[in-house]
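Team,

Forwarding the record for the chain on the shared tracking sheet. I've put the sequence and predicted structure together so nobody has to dig through attachments.
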Amino acid sequence: MPQISTEKAPAAIGPYSQAIEANGFVFASGQLPIDPATGAFPEGGVKEQTRQSILNAQAILAAAGLSLSNVVKTTVFLADMGDFAAMNEVYASFFTSPFPARSAVAVKTLPKGALVEIECIAAK
Protein backbone atom coordinates (compact mmCIF):
# COMPACT_ATOMS: atom_id res chain seq x y z
CA MET A 1 0.00 0.00 0.00
CA PRO A 2 1.56 3.30 -1.02
CA GLN A 3 2.10 5.79 1.77
CA ILE A 4 1.28 9.42 1.01
CA SER A 5 3.04 12.25 2.79
CA THR A 6 3.76 15.92 2.32
CA GLU A 7 5.60 18.63 4.19
CA LYS A 8 2.62 20.91 3.43
CA ALA A 9 0.70 19.19 6.25
CA PRO A 10 1.82 18.39 9.79
CA ALA A 11 3.93 15.28 10.20
CA ALA A 12 2.32 12.35 11.96
CA ILE A 13 2.73 12.64 15.73
CA GLY A 14 2.59 8.89 16.28
CA PRO A 15 2.98 5.54 14.54
CA TYR A 16 0.70 6.27 11.59
CA SER A 17 0.84 7.69 8.06
CA GLN A 18 -0.61 10.97 6.84
CA ALA A 19 -2.47 8.84 4.29
CA ILE A 20 -2.48 5.42 2.66
CA GLU A 21 -3.68 4.53 -0.82
CA ALA A 22 -5.52 1.24 -1.21
CA ASN A 23 -7.94 -0.17 -3.78
CA GLY A 24 -8.53 3.15 -5.54
CA PHE A 25 -9.09 5.12 -2.34
CA VAL A 26 -6.95 7.43 -0.26
CA PHE A 27 -7.49 7.15 3.48
CA ALA A 28 -6.24 10.32 5.18
CA SER A 29 -5.57 10.26 8.90
CA GLY A 30 -7.36 12.74 11.14
CA GLN A 31 -5.92 16.20 10.70
CA LEU A 32 -5.41 18.38 13.71
CA PRO A 33 -5.45 22.13 13.06
CA ILE A 34 -1.68 22.46 13.19
CA ASP A 35 -0.18 24.98 10.81
CA PRO A 36 2.73 23.08 9.24
CA ALA A 37 4.72 26.31 8.90
CA THR A 38 4.57 27.17 12.61
CA GLY A 39 3.73 23.88 14.33
CA ALA A 40 0.99 25.71 16.25
CA PHE A 41 -2.76 26.01 16.12
CA PRO A 42 -4.08 29.11 14.33
CA GLU A 43 -5.23 31.93 16.57
CA GLY A 44 -8.96 32.07 17.14
CA GLY A 45 -11.48 29.35 17.80
CA VAL A 46 -13.15 26.43 16.13
CA LYS A 47 -13.67 28.25 12.81
CA GLU A 48 -9.97 28.91 12.38
CA GLN A 49 -9.11 25.41 13.54
CA THR A 50 -11.63 23.84 11.15
CA ARG A 51 -10.15 25.81 8.26
CA GLN A 52 -6.62 24.65 9.13
CA SER A 53 -7.68 21.01 9.52
CA ILE A 54 -9.29 21.07 6.08
CA LEU A 55 -6.28 22.83 4.54
CA ASN A 56 -4.08 20.07 5.97
CA ALA A 57 -6.33 17.37 4.49
CA GLN A 58 -6.35 19.24 1.19
CA ALA A 59 -2.53 19.28 1.10
CA ILE A 60 -2.38 15.54 1.72
CA LEU A 61 -4.91 14.87 -1.01
CA ALA A 62 -2.91 17.10 -3.39
CA ALA A 63 0.16 14.97 -2.68
CA ALA A 64 -1.91 12.02 -3.94
CA GLY A 65 -2.99 13.96 -7.05
CA LEU A 66 -6.49 14.54 -5.67
CA SER A 67 -8.61 17.43 -4.40
CA LEU A 68 -11.47 17.90 -1.99
CA SER A 69 -13.85 17.11 -4.86
CA ASN A 70 -12.61 13.49 -4.64
CA VAL A 71 -13.66 13.15 -1.00
CA VAL A 72 -16.44 10.63 -0.49
CA LYS A 73 -16.53 10.53 3.35
CA THR A 74 -15.37 12.70 6.21
CA THR A 75 -15.43 12.28 9.94
CA VAL A 76 -15.36 15.38 12.11
CA PHE A 77 -14.36 15.06 15.75
CA LEU A 78 -15.37 17.99 17.96
CA ALA A 79 -14.26 18.65 21.52
CA ASP A 80 -17.62 20.39 22.07
CA MET A 81 -20.78 19.70 20.04
CA GLY A 82 -21.74 23.29 20.82
CA ASP A 83 -19.17 24.22 18.12
CA PHE A 84 -21.04 22.25 15.44
CA ALA A 85 -22.68 25.25 13.71
CA ALA A 86 -19.42 27.24 13.55
CA MET A 87 -17.50 24.22 12.25
CA ASN A 88 -20.23 23.50 9.72
CA GLU A 89 -20.14 27.06 8.38
CA VAL A 90 -16.43 26.77 7.53
CA TYR A 91 -16.73 23.15 6.37
CA ALA A 92 -19.47 24.15 3.89
CA SER A 93 -17.16 26.73 2.29
CA PHE A 94 -14.73 23.98 1.21
CA PHE A 95 -17.12 21.38 -0.24
CA THR A 96 -19.63 21.52 -3.09
CA SER A 97 -22.52 19.33 -4.15
CA PRO A 98 -22.57 16.41 -4.19
CA PHE A 99 -21.25 16.73 -0.67
CA PRO A 100 -19.29 13.86 0.84
CA ALA A 101 -20.98 11.63 3.37
CA ARG A 102 -20.08 12.78 6.88
CA SER A 103 -20.16 11.81 10.51
CA ALA A 104 -19.66 14.39 13.25
CA VAL A 105 -19.11 13.29 16.81
CA ALA A 106 -18.18 14.92 20.07
CA VAL A 107 -15.24 13.39 21.90
CA LYS A 108 -14.00 13.92 25.41
CA THR A 109 -10.65 15.37 24.33
CA LEU A 110 -8.52 15.68 21.22
CA PRO A 111 -4.73 15.53 20.97
CA LYS A 112 -2.91 18.70 22.01
CA GLY A 113 -6.21 20.22 23.22
CA ALA A 114 -7.54 20.78 19.70
CA LEU A 115 -11.14 21.83 19.22
CA VAL A 116 -11.56 19.83 16.00
CA GLU A 117 -9.96 17.02 14.00
CA ILE A 118 -11.07 15.99 10.50
CA GLU A 119 -10.31 12.81 8.59
CA CYS A 120 -11.36 11.90 5.06
CA ILE A 121 -11.56 9.16 2.48
CA ALA A 122 -11.18 10.09 -1.18
CA ALA A 123 -11.75 8.12 -4.37
CA LYS A 124 -9.19 8.18 -7.16
